[in-house]
Amino acid sequence: MQNILIIGATSAIAEASARRFAARGDALFLVARDPVRLEHIGADLRLRGAARVATFVMDATDSAAHPAMLDAAEQALGGIDVALIAHGTLPDQKACEASVELTLATLAVNGTSVIALATLIGARFEARKTGVLAVIGSVAGDRGRASNYVYGTAKGMVDIFMQGLRHRLSKSGAQALLIKPGFVDTPMTSSFKKGALWAQPDTIARGIVAAIEARRDVVYLPGFWRWIMLIIRHIPERIFQRTSL
Amino acid sequence: MALNSWGRLPSLPAAQEIPWRQRDDALPELPIPLLAFGNGRSYGDSCLNSDGALLLTRGTDRFISFDAAPTTRGNPTPATPATHPTPAHTQVTATDGDSAYLRCEAGVLLADIIEVFLPRGWFLPVTPGTRFVTVGGAIANDVHGKNHHRAGSFGAHVRSFELLRSDGSRRVCSRHENADWFAATIGGLGLTGLITWAEIELRRVDSDGLTVENTRFHGLDEFFALNGEAEAAYEYAVAWIDCLAKTPRGIFMAADHAPAGSRARTPGKAKRAPFTPPLSPVNTASLSLFNQAYYHRPLPSRGLTHLLPFFYPLDGILDWNRLYGRRGFYQYQCVVPRAARAAIDEMLHAIAASGQGSLLAVLKTFGHDASPGMLSFPMEGTTLALDFPDQGEATQALFGRLDAIVASAGGRLYPAKDARMPAYLFRQGYPQFDAFGRFVDPRFSSNFWRRISA
Ligand SMILES: Cc1cc2nc3c(=O)[nH]c(=O)nc-3n(C[C@H](O)[C@H](O)[C@H](O)COP(=O)(O)OP(=O)(O)OC[C@H]3O[C@@H](n4cnc5c(N)ncnc54)[C@H](O)[C@@H]3O)c2cc1C
Ligand SMILES: NC(=O)c1ccc[n+]([C@@H]2O[C@H](COP(=O)([O-])OP(=O)(O)OC[C@H]3O[C@@H](n4cnc5c(N)ncnc54)[C@H](OP(=O)(O)O)[C@@H]3O)[C@@H](O)[C@H]2O)c1
C-alpha cells in the first residue's frame, strides 16, 4: 500500500489514475477546487478499494494555501509516497493572443502553480530522501507552435523546472517524473475532433502508474509520441514555419 | 465515425454526440431531440437518434454507495481483512448478509460491478448475455437473464433511481415514491428522460464458480421436459438450438452458483475481431458447419466453470459483431405465452424452410413474475432469440412470416434487439403503449420511437 497525494484530482486523467491506485488498495489524498465533484470521486474510490480517502478543496493557483494543504496530506496519510500534479487548463490560443490577462493566467495555472507545488513537495521529499513526484506536462511543451504556444510555454517551463529538480533530487533517494501525454479524450479536449492518435484517459493512467513504479524520468504517453516529438523538435525552423501544426 | 448500435446495420444519419460526465449537470439546451446512449449494446435503433443528440452516459461511471444488509446467516465466517485478490483466483469471504444495495451512476458497466464486487462475494441478481452494458441501459430495456424463472427481470432488483427530465426536474423514483414514473422508466427505452443514478440489489455468491449441467436434446418436447425439471431445480436454465437441423436439436444448460471453496479456472483475456470483412464469413454453409460442430463438440455432462464464460460466452471475443461483415445483421427475439408452444415449432420450421440460419439461437422460458415496467419485454412464456445476417428481401420476408406467428400467438418482440418491427406488432404486443405516452419526455426521442409511433 502506498500513500498518494493527487492535486487536480477531478481531472479525467487523474481520476483514471486514482482508480488504478484504489484497486490496489492505496491510501489517497485528493485535492481539487470543486468540492461536490471531489466528494463524488472520493466516494467512488473508497468503494473501488482505496484503503483511505481524504479530500481537500484548494485552487492550485492559491500558493498561500499550498503549505497547509501539504501538512494536511502528510497528516492524513502519515507521509506521502507519491505526489501526482494533474491540474491544468487548455485555453483558446486566439483568445490568449487577444488578452495579456488570459495569457498570464494560463501561465499561472499550468506553469507557476505547478512549480510552486513542486518546489514544496521536492523539498519535503529531498529531506525524507524518498518519494516520487509525478507531474503531468504535455507534448505541447516540446516546441512552440502557433496553435497553442501559450499553453505550450507553461508546459515547457515545467519541463525545464523538472529537469533541474530531478538533477538536484538525484543526490537524494527522491524522484521527479515528467509525464508528457499526447492527445487525450477528456473534458479539456471535448471540442476537438478525435482521430487515430487519440488515447483514452485510462490508457494514460496505466502508463502513469507504470512510470511511477519504474521510477522513470520522462515518459511520453502513449509511447509513440516520443518518436513524433523527436521529429517535430528536429524540423528546422525555416521549414517549421511553413507548416500549420 | 458515427456511433452505431450492436447490429451495425448500414448507418442511419448521425446524431450529435454529447459527452455526459457529471450527474449533477443540467441537460444541454438544444433545439433537437435528446436520447441517452449507454454502451450501444442494443442491436437495432432504440439507442440511436438520427439528427438528434445522444448523451454519452459512459462518462458518469462512479460508484456512490454500497450497503450490505446485516448478516442473516447462522454463523458467518470470521471477518478477514479486505484482501485484494490476486487476479488468478477470487476468494470470497462471507461476512455480510445475502443481499446488498449498490448505488451508482447510470453509466457504470455491469462489467465494472463484477470486477469490483465479485471478489468481495457479490454478483448481479440478473444479468444479460453480455456484461458490457450500462446500468442505465439495463434498466431502460428491463433486461433479463438465464434466471428469469427465479428472479424475474433486472428491473425487479432496482430499488430506486433518479430521473432527470428536460424541464430540469429531478425525481427519485421507487416502488413507493413516484411509482408511476418508476414503472414507465423501467423498460422505458430511454424515452422518459435521463436516469442519472440507480440503486440496485446485489446478491451473495459463495464463489466465482458455477456447477453446470449440459444435456443434448432432440425436438421441442424434449426441450420442454428438460426445462420443466430444470426450472424447479436450478437457478439458471437456457438452451442453444441448431435451427438448421431438420428436427430442432440443441444443448440444454442448467446451472447453480457453486458452493464456497469451489475454484474455477479464471478465463483468459478477451480477443478482438481484427477487422470488418467486406463480405460476411457467416453464411448458410458456414453456419450449418458451425452448428453441427457445436452440437457434437465433446461436452462434459456436469462440471464446474467460472461464471464469466457461462454468462458471457461472446464477451470473450470483443467486437464479434464485426464478423457479420459490412452489411451488419439482425436479431429477432420474441416471447410467446407458455401455452403457445406450437408457435415456437412453427417458427423453427419457417426458419429451417427459409434456409436462413442463425448462429446463436437461444431458447428459454420466462417465469410468472410480472415485470415492473409498462413496456418491459419479459412476460410468462417461451422466448426465442435468433440472429440473421442481412440478406435483403429474403430476410425481410422471413421476418414477415415470423411476425405473423408471434402476433397470432399473442406474443411480442424485444425492442432492444429490433431494427424493423412493424408498428402494429409493437402496439399489439405492448398493451400499455397508449398509457405510456404521457410519460415520454417531450424533448426525448429515438429512431425506434419515431418508427413505432409514426
Ligand atoms: C451479446 C449480447 C447479448 C445480450 N444478451 C441479452 C440478454 O440475455 N438479455 C437481455 O435482456 N438483453 C440482452 N442483450 C441486449 C442488451 O442487454 C440491451 O440492449 C441493453 O439495454 C444494452 O445496454 P447499453 O448500456 O449498451 O445501452 P444502449 O444500447 O446504449 O441503450 C439502450 C437503451 O437504454 C437507454 N438508456 C441508456 N442509458 C440510459 C440512461 N442513463 N437513462 C435513460 N435511458 C438510458 C437508451 O436510450 C436506449 O433506449 C444482449 C446484447 C448483446 C450485444
Ligand atoms: N487532454 C489532453 O489531451 C492532454 C494532453 C497533454 C497533457 N494534458 C494535461 O493533463 C492534465 C490533466 O488534464 P485532463 O486532460 O485530465 O483534463 P481535465 O479533465 O479537464 O482536467 C483538468 C483539471 O484541472 C483542474 N484545474 C484547472 N484549473 C485549476 C485550478 N486553478 N486549481 C485547481 N484545479 C484546476 C480542473 O478542475 P475544474 O474541473 O474544477 O475546472 C480539472 O479537474 C493537465 O495538466 C493537462 O494539461 C492533457
TrEMBL record, chain A:
SUPFAM superfamilies for this protein: NAD(P)-binding Rossmann-fold domains
Record protein name field: SDR family oxidoreductase
Native source species: Rhodocyclus tenuis (Rhodospirillum tenue)
Similarity comment text for this entry: Belongs to the short-chain dehydrogenases/reductases (SDR) family.
CC per GO annotation: membrane
Superkingdom to which the source organism belongs: Bacteria
Entry keyword set: Oxidoreductase
Any one GO MF annotation of this record: oxidoreductase activity
Automatic annotation (TrEMBL), chain B:
Keywords: FAD, Flavoprotein, Oxidoreductase
InterPro entries for this protein: FAD-bd_PCMH, FAD-bd_PCMH-like_sf, FAD-bd_PCMH_sub2, FAD-linked_Oxidoreductases_BP, Oxid_FAD_bind_N
Ranges of compositional bias, category Low complexity: 76-91
SUPFAM superfamilies: FAD-binding/transporter-associated domain-like
Region described as Disordered: 66-91
Molecular function, one GO term: oxidoreductase activity
Key word Oxidoreductase present: yes
A Pfam family assignment: FAD_binding_4
Domain FAD-binding PCMH-type: 11-205
Family, per entry: Belongs to the oxygen-dependent FAD-linked oxidoreductase family.
Protein name: FAD-binding protein
